[in-house]
Structures are given as C-alpha cells and as structure tokens.
Amino acid sequence: MLFGGRKKKGVENPQTELYGHCLQLYTQPPLENISLVEFEQFAVDRMKLLKTVENLGVTHIKTSEDYSKKLHAEISSLNFPHRTEVSTFIVPAVASEYEKRRKDHISHFILRLAYCQTEDLRRWFIQQEMDLFRHRFNDLSPKSKSDFLHRNSLQYETISVEEKKSLMEKLINSSYAFSGCTVEEQDFYKVPFQDALDLVRMRKVFVKDGFAYVPHQDIVTIVLNDYRTRLSKALALTARSLPVVQSDERLQPLLSHLSHAYVGQDYSIQKNIGKISLEQIDSLSTKSFPPCMRQLHKALRDSHHLRHGGRMQYGLFLKGIGLTLDQALQFWRAEFLRGKVDADKFDKAYAYSIRHMFGKEGKRTDYTPYSCMKVILSNPPSQGDHHGCPFRHSDPELLKQKLQSYKISSGGINQILELVKGMHYQLACQKYFELTHSIDDAGFSLNHPNQYFSESQKLLTGGKEVKRELDSPRRPHAAAGSENSKAPPETPSSSNRVPQEVMDDLDSFFQEE
Amino acid sequence: MAPVAEYEAACLPELLPLYYRRLFPFSQYHRWLSYGGVTKNYFQNREFSFTLKDDIYVRYQSFSNQNELEKEIQKMNPYKIDIGAVYSHRPNQHNTVKSGTFQALEKELVFDIDMTDYDDVRRCCSSADICTKCWILMTIAIRIIDRALREDFGFRHLLWVYSGRRGVHCWVCDEAARKLSVAARSAVAEYLTLVKGGEETVKKVQLSDPVHPFIKESLAVVRRYFTDYALVGQDIMGSKESMDKVVALVPDEIRKDLVAALQAEKNPTKRWEKLKVIVQQKQASSKKSYYTEEEIMLQYCYPRLDVNVSKGVNHLLKSPFSVHPKTGRISVPIDLRELGQFNPFDVPTISLICKELDRPRTAEEEEASVRERDPDGGEQRKVRDYKRTSLAKYVKLFDQFVEEMERSRKGELLRRTDLQKDF
Asked: Looking at residues B379-406, what average pLDDT do you find?
C-alpha cells in the first residue's frame, strides 16, 4: 500500500485515466500525496456514506425507489460521484466532478486500511461497499454501463438464439417479471455458477450443468460478484502489509478509531459485569429483554434446552448484560440439568462452549453479542430452533398471538405488523419498546438487543444517566453509545500525536468509545 | 440370511480393534482422499479427528501416508472418525505455524440430512428414532438433491453415505466442488433449501410466480412418493390432530370452506382430493396464484438440509466406514441404483461383521484365499477378510466410486494434453 502522509512531492496526477468513469473497481491504489486533514475528511465522509448504506439497507427494500432516492441524496451531499454522463475519455469536463471521483477513489482505499484487520470488519466493509456499488451501477444509463464493462474488460459469453429458444420456458421461469418476449429481446450470458452466486442463492437464474444463464438486466450481479472477489482478496493482501502502515503513528490511531466505529457499540465491554443476579433474570426477561431474548429465555425455561444457534444468541446477550462466566455456567447448567442432560454430559458437551463464548477456550476470542443485523440476516432458525428475530422469523399470525400474550394493545399490534410487512424489523422492535415502556418516542435507533436492554433499564431505573438529544437525524447511531459518550476515548489514541480536534471530530460522529 | 448379532455399546472397545485391524478398507479410503496425488500434500494436509472413549475429542490429526493412518487408527481405536478440510499446513503441526496462516483450503462439498429435522412432519417416530416408514423421506431427499447436484450444478462424483443412525450424508468429490469458496457453498445450499423457519414459523414453504425449474423438478419427485408416503404411510389426513396441521398451512380465505369439506369426508385420500379441488376453485376466481397443494407437499416431504454443515470449508463430517457408537452400524455408501430397496436396518453392525469373521470359511473362499496368497500378504489378508462379511458389497461400491473418479481424472488429463497438442 502506498499510503503515507507526505512522501516525495510532485507527479501531477497520473490517474486521469483512472477517473475516466464515475464508477470504478478500485484496482489501482492512489499514488499522490495527501494531507492528514484530507485523509481524515475523506475517511469520515466515506464512513458516513457506508453507515447510511447500512441503515437504509435495514429500513428499506434495496430495490425500492425510496432507497435509491435517499442514497442518491446522501451521495450528493457528501460530494461523492454518481451518475454523470461525462464519462467520455480524458479529463472529466467539470473540475468538481474530478474531485468527487478522486475522493471516491482515495477514501475507498483509506477504509480498506481500517477495515482489513478482522474477519468481521472485512465482512461489514465488503457488504456496504457492495450495496453502494450496486446502487451506483444500477443508476447508470445503459450506455454508461456498457462503457464501464468495456473499460474494465468485463466481457461475458452470450448464448445463441437457438440455445435460447430451446431453453425458453426454463429461462422465463427462472427470472422474475419476465415474459417470453422480453426473454427473446434480452441477451443471456452463460457464466460459471460461481460468478453469479447471489442469483443462484435466490434461485433467480436458470442453472444447468454448472452454468448460470444470466439475463442482461441482472448483469450487475456478475459484476458485483467479480468486485467482491477482488475486494476480499485485496483486503487480505492489505492486512498483510498493514504493520507497515500501523508503524506510522500519525495514521495508526485514526485507522483504529475508524475501524472501531463500524456498528456502533459492540457491547462486549461489560461495564455492568456482576451487577445482575441469576434470580433477576426471569423478571428482567419480561421487563427489559427484547422479544428475541424473551422468546429464547422462555423456550429455555420450558424445554430446559436450546440448540446451538439459540445458545449463542442468548448466551452472548446474557454475557453482554453482565453475567460473569461463573454465573453463566451456573445458569445454563441448572437449566439443562432440569431437562434430559445429566451433569456429566453438561460438563463435557456444553460447558466448553460457554467458556468458549467468554474467550476461555479455543481461539480465545472474546465473542461479542449479536447485533440486530446479525440476528436478522445470518443463520436463520430451522426446525427446533428458537433463535432469530421474532419480527423477521415468525409467521405474522403467531407474532400477533405472541404480542397479544405480551399484552400489547390491538392498535399497537397493528402498527407493529405493518412495520413487519414493510420489512422494518428493527423499527417494529423499537415500536414494541415504546409500547411496552409507555413512551411516545424511544429517542434512539435500535440496532442491538443489548442496547434495547440498557435503554430499558435506563428508563425503568429512573434514568440516572442523562438522556442525550439526537443532534441530527442523520446520526441514528449517536444514541447507541450515549451512555458512555461523555467518557474520554480509551482507544490507543492516548498515545498518539494526531491533533486532538481530529479525534474530537471523529468522536462526535462515532460516539462509541 | 446372515447370522444375527445384537449390538451392544458395551462391546465396542472389544470390537473396534478387530474392525480396524481386519475390516476397515484403508486402501480404498486412502486412494479416495489422495485424489490421484495430483495436488501436493493433499492427503497429508487433511484433517481427521477422532472421538475416543468417554467422548474425548481429538482434533487436527493428520498422516503422511496410508501406513501411518492405519497404524494410528489401530492404536487409538476411535469410536468415531470425522473428516475435515485440506489445510495449508499439516494439521498435526497447526500449533507450530504462525496463527492466521493455518487455513482450510479445500474440502468436498458436503450435505447432511438428519431425520430429527423432520420432527414436525412425521408421525411415526421422533428425534433419533427412525423406521422404514419415515426413511422414505431420506429416499426423497437423496433423489432430489442428487438430481440437482448433477443436472443443475454439473457435479459427477457424488458419494451418498448412510450416517449410521438417522440420516444420510453426501460427499461431492469433483475437483470443482472441493475448491468452492464458502460463499459458493452457502449459495448452493441455499439454492437447495425450500423449507425455512424454526419453531416460530408454521408455514415453512412459500412459492411465488414463476416457479423455478429446480422447484418443478423437485416437485415431480415429491409427487411420486406423496400419496404412498404422506397420505397412506403417515396418514396425515387421518386424524383431527394431524389434519389441523395441514389446515394451518392453507390460506385464511380458503380455510373455512376446507374445514367444512374435510369434516364431510372420511377417507384420507379423498380428503386430500377435496383440498385440491377447493384450492382450484379458489384459483379460478382469483388473480393471485395459489400453490397451496405444492407448498404442503414440499413442507411434508422436501429435504431439510443442515446448511451450516455445507457452508463451512472447515466443518467436520463423520467419515464413511466409521462406526456409529450408539447403533453399532457402519456408515456405508448407498447404492443409488438400488435406492428404493435401501433399508437402514439391513446395514451391518460392527458386531455382525466381526462375528462373520469367525465363521468357518467355505470351500470357495478357501480356494480364493489360496490363489491370492502371496509372500508379503498383509494387504491381501485384509482384502479376503472383509469379503467374507456383509461389509463386502459396500466396500465394493466404494471401490467402484473411487475407480470411476480415477478414470474420469485420467480422461480429463488426456483431454487436456490433447488440447495442448492442438495449439
């Protein structure tokens, strides 16, 4: 990686060619010198953009008009490039457009540095970059799209008219919103199925003999697949050369600060540790647990068992609210022994995994409690499972019954079900929070079960901690870390030489330290 | 009929040494996992893990060659053997390499289908129990998944194995399959998944227009079995209780009519016909597509994969020819040409095949053994031994599978050299 604040001077932009299109695959790292101020500004802006991408992805359907409108607005306001027709060769007509593309380029590479370090960070970064790219690509005109493919030498083999005819019915049935005549008009690309995984996964493409037959309208998927592969390889490479960058004491604190910011607070730091007794859990589960954890707790009490997915989701949550390892062992042991598991089996088969959760076994990773995103998107429950998000993974009818049993008013239930219908699961949960705590506006944006718990406790125990006002609607995560936002940053920043105002700037945005 | 030998878990420590010394097909096993020795250290970097007495679990075992594998297994006598990934380094040295560099590189694409995952739709048994009635679910699962892996994904070398207790495993051994990324594995697994949802979901299959060719093909398989399996065997329209479960899967606007119609009819098969008719009537007067019949059939019969097993490159899966410690049955390959006749209760137990070894040889066997005898006869002896037991046909099947793979690999090599000549 060729990042350094001030290296040798000169070389007026060898990158003009690189900025010939408003969209790029970031194959070449930037080579120019930039100031620390710019470095930081770019990084923070892209960070904001990616956060917006993440938030919109949760609250909106990614293909909806609303989603793309809002994302478009954010891209404009942060001065990143989007759809421009000035993509014909050499210098983009407008100077400001050049600046935008430069910013897009450089900021992407800065965040690579910050997000290459762990599997989790990489996954998050790739996911947001993918969504951003998809939006920007879809936004292009057809001409601009083919120009982009051409520039990046992305050529795919189309199938012949005869082949298309012979597969007609299957092609029609493999894609949404297709009639025979649109199939006839469109080009189909025959690519190894590995190149169109997102379509294969959703069964939105015809697959035969190891090949996916991708209609032209879905070509973005192949491009994204390609981009994802490149990016994840690049991140792995970056991670290897990271020690060099980290030895630069101007950049190191900035980068680590950036990477800490990605999902708000991760709730792995247990400030409340030991403040909860096992006897309290039953009553807390009805008062202050989010529905997903309440459901798990009930299932555990009823059947004296939880399967792996449930143990992870619930176990880490309990750890996050302050159970110590000893308490956790005692808690799970007592419950499991009431069921079919005997003490010997528990010690052999389950105790290990609980110690593992607390980072006392195996890789010794101190696992962090699952965020809402993780609960909603990964490892969906299957037969025998009680984990997942009740708003996402329940039949509406069952959800309704459950909410009734939780004594939610029928008006409230309808509001929640409406949100669920629109796939706004976190908002539905937040509505549930408001209804069960009898407040009009929760005043925070829910993105973590442990956040639900701490916010609930704050309200119920009389709000000893001052509730912060949200300073702007575009900072939905601000409140997530409100309880400790007043504390001085405890990151390695104490030993850095970055001007304090830089860190303050970052702090005011991220708020999580 | 072979002599019946009841298996008792307590005998396992006595039987295992005999099994690993005289019966386990090490030669084919090693040939399988070496894949022609094309990739350097492919066998050497493979993880094995053993479960020993008292559930002691030993991970990251690896071996330089067949002899070493044989010696170690005969020394440890594992209750269960699992196979993991091919790593960047020898797994038994994983502690000596820098953390982060020890990585799982390749593994067969595997599928694990377990009968416990069908507990909400089978009435004959629950949890670890199985019977010939519900085993049909496994037959359906194999037919559907096998077809899709071959025809849709183009894989050729699929080894289906009975797990020894309540399920089946599939090992997709094609080179392309072994090299798949985690993302690709999960995409394939999700493509193959139709039944979704846990305890909080009643209706677990939702179809929408258009119905993907893969689902159509799968439905065709389910249809072949549905009447005999679900309507007759499981009698899902037989009692009020079981019918309620079916009715719960029907859209609200149809439910009332359906309940009335079902009460008027007593014959289970006709009840199902009634359901179809009512859905069709509704369909005729509606723009919306109703796939109620199909969705119910799929929810009751469609294979339920343990997706997490398929996703991970480093996930371990019980090895073929390992013993199931609870049932004593050997994890044997399943012959798809005779899939309909496969009966898990006919699969030999370790007690049975060890007992079979004690039988006096027949004249025929004696003759064969004389012919095969040669000076350094260790290997030969073993060959003769398993042939005298009911394990023979399964080893033969395994042998054919490995051979077929070797043949196609040679063919592929020839094709490549031919191509090079063209240039």
From this structure: 86
Contact A369, A449 (CB under 8 A): yes
Q: Picking from A192-201, A258-267, A374-383, A498-507, which range would have the lowest pLDDT averaged per residue?
A: A498-507
Instruction: Provide the phi-psi class of A379: left if phi over 0, else alpha when psi is between -120 and 50, else beta.
Output: left
Q: Does A82 score more than 90 pLDDT?
A: no
Residue A470 burial by Cβ neighbours in a 10 Å radius (0-12, 13-18, 19+): middle
pLDDT of A174: 87
pTM value is 0.81
Choose, out of A117, A193, A298, the residue to mutate when testing the contact with B (most B CBs < 10 Å). A193
ipTM of the complex: 0.91
Which residues are CB-neighbours of A343 under 8 A, at least 6 positions away? A333, A337
Domain C-terminal end among B251, B286, B301: B301
Q: Residue B27 has which token pair?
A: 């030669």
Mean pLDDT, rounded, for A271-287? 87
Average pLDDT value over all residues in chain A: 81
Sign of the torsion angle spanned by Cα atoms A220, A225, A230, A235: positive
pLDDT (mean) for A6-33:
71
| B285 and B401 housed in the same domain | no
pLDDT digits (tens, 9 = 90+) for B46-87: 999 999 998 889 999 999 999 999 999 999 999 999 999 999
Q: How high is the pLDDT of residue A344?
A: 87
* pLDDT score of A267: 72
| Residue B351: predicted pLDDT | 95
Residues of A near B (CB-CB distance < 8 A)?
170, 172-176, 178, 193-194, 197-198, 200-203, 206-211, 228, 295, 299, 348-349, 379-388, 390, 393-395, 397-399
Binned at pLDDT 50, 70 and 90, residue B372 comes out as low
Region(s) of chain A under CATH 1.20.930.80: 14-150+223-258
Query: Which letter, b or e, does each residue of B172-208 get, where b requires 16 or more Cβ atoms within 10 Å of its Cβ?
Result: bbbbbbbebeebbbbbbbbbbbbbbbbbbbebbbebe
Q: Which two tokens stand for residue B95?
A: 């502690």
User: Are B33 and B101 members of one domain?
Assistant: yes
Which of A420, B408, A460, A477 is CA-nearest to residue A468?
A: A477
Give pairs for B336-344: CB < 8 Å, separation 24+. B336/B142, B336/B146, B336/B160, B339/B139, B339/B142, B339/B143, B340/B139, B342/B139, B342/B162, B343/B132, B343/B135, B344/B130, B344/B135, B344/B162
Chain A: give the shortest CA distance to residue B201, in Å: 5
Determine the pLDDT at residue A223: 94
Question: What residues make up the domain containing B108?
Answer: 9-127+154-190+306-417
Q: Is the pLDDT of residue B422 over 70?
A: no
Residues B92 and B235 occupy one common structural domain: no
Contact between chains at B213 and A398 (C-beta distance less than 8 A): no
* Average pLDDT over chain B, rounded to an integer: 91
Residue A430 has which token pair? 């937040």
- Chain B residues in contact with A178 by the CB 8 A cut-off are 210
Residue B29 pLDDT more than 90?
A: yes
Distance from CA of B377 to the nearest CA of A (A): 43
What values do phi and psi take at B130, rounded to 5? -140, 160
Give phi and psi for B329, each to the nearest 5. Answer: -80, 145
Report CA torsion sign: B56, B62, B64, B70: positive
Confidence bin at A469 (pLDDT 50/70/90): very low
Residue B72 and residue B181 in one domain: yes
Which has the closest alpha carbon to A440: A410, A415, A422? A415
Q: What is the pLDDT of residue B368?
A: 61
Judged by CB atoms closer than 8 Å, whether chains meet at B210 and A178 is answered as yes
Domain A14-150+223-258 class? mainly alpha
Q: How many domains does chain B have?
A: 2
